[in-house]
Give the backbone structure.
Amino acid sequence: MFTGINEVDWAALRHAYGSAEDVPGMLRGLASADRAERDTALDGMYGAVHHQGDVYDSTLACVPFLFALVGREEVPDRAGIVELLVSIGGGDDGAETLSGAYAMARTAVRAGAQVFVRLTGDPDAGVRRAAAGAVVRFLDEPATVLGLLRERLMVERDDAVLLALTEGLGLFVRRHPGRAAAALDLLTAQSAPPYGPGLRIAALGQLAGCAPDRLPDDLVGTVVRLLRDRSERRPTRPCDRDRPETDTLVGRLRRLRPSDEEGSQLLRTLHTALDDRVDDRIGLLCGQLTSPDPVDRCNAVWMSTGLFREWRADHTEPVALIGAQLGEDEDRLRDAAVTVLADLFELAAPAADPLDTLVTSRPDLWVRQWTRGTPTLGGPLKALARTGDPRAVPVLAEVLAGPVVPGDLGQVIRHLGRAAAPLAPAFRHRLGGIPLDSPDVHERALTVLPALEALHDRDCVPGVLRLLLGIPEEARLRDAVVANAVRTLGAIGSSAHEAVPALRGLLEGDSAIAAADALWSVEGDAEAVLPVLLRELTDGTPHRRRAAADVLARLGPAARPALPGLRPLTESGTVWERTSAACAVWRITGAPDTVLAVLRSAWAENPHTRATIAGCIAAMGPKGTPLHDLPRAELASARRHRTSSGGFGSHDVFADEQLLRVCREALGGG
């Protein structure tokens, strides 16, 4: 297996963390009889030699030895090594998208593709499963590949391998559209009786992605029936207690797998393939969420996140059904539902009643303690508060009366609006009780100040000034505390007039822009803040120039002296700087013509700028008409605005709903 390994100058090769001289030990570890050693070696391969999908010269040097390992039946866990080879070779990336070391890696893996052919008949079902996709990806002989898939489908008896072969057929169709007819016929046959429910769902998922015209008319009803049939037949997951767990990344990932990983993958494939067929996906989710099997319902809950985060639709029914899972005794199901609902913010309102029931019945879930760091709000209470439901307020009051304030409480308060006003005295009390010389002054202040800012609590001004003027220079995260205190005073506005001297005193420091912003809100004196903002436009960093432009936009016509500094920024190479400067010019002059093109290009270039631009359009009233087509098109789009920029975040649904609200305001819809 390791012939020639000592002839490679590993010390001269590199991986993610420097010299690759430790790679031979990893390769030998992959063949160890000890599972912990194998897992540690595989950790090392992914963590260093193939770090986050990167390819190094040491990665290329490993390929022959990895092929030698997978070819020896006595080596345990070879399926994981096959998966590693697939990843090194580029996985689902087409050859035309790869260059440099990545293209060399793909060539190296393709050169060994005949090994994958042999492995499709390996005694180890896990190896056969991994090899099924590998042979489609790397063997550049379409006729041979299709024949092999057809042959293996006829003789294979392991359900998991059959599913992998079905996925291989779908991949074959996408890779070789000119030779797809026979593969599509096989998939169509597998989607109907007498094949079992799991294989039929797998085939339907592949057809949905590559030949939707071959799907049954009642796709949703068909899949829901198959899913329930599959659940009735599904055996209990075998116990792995005889296989010791390892404290490695591989071991942790193994423990985190869904209890029905196969079912989860089947439905994920189908949902992904259905893409913009949102009504079908909602119907499918509702069918899953009403399944008698809690495992199916748990899979559906996790599956819903992609739909909610990517598509705008009436999600009332699936959200209510997710809320119904909160009354279940299954901890895994309940926790999944809470996690999903907490990220929906006000869209979780259809689940508010079961959330309130859970919060009321389980005080132990109000606060979540962590091994390290500040406690946070428990998921059920956070989800209820984020919907804006006033029933969260009395519970939050009890939490505030406790010994420790959750670190994220201040951020959650803003979602309750005026309903949270009764909490202001408790937050003021907490603010007044912060010892200024305490080592955790920043943690306590950054919990309380955002809440008082959201509440616009005029009675907190003395306490905020005490903190602002008294926090030691050496305090940890002092700048963040000062910035939050200044924002709180600005949010209170003219009622914070006693803070004017303190704010004026900050106009020369690092907090100058924030202080100018707050000072304008408190006393509206342009002469006091313009020199600061003009200076930042000239001498500040790009981030500070943008921040200054945002404040100048608030000043409106009073900021006319800033126009010579703002206009050049509308041609900046940074989209956010262009956007802020253009919005400022528009609000100062009231003449949109000079910046229309800038705002249009920014809207298209970076979806994250759209809320800012829509807010500018809304603020200009009828003068914003030349850009009304932008919010109108946004409101007509079914896809959420951030999905095009890649990935998902926990606040994406909230940000998108805010954008839609501002777009409606821009068009006069309130």
Summary: Residues 237-243, 252-257 have pLDDT under 50 and may be disordered.
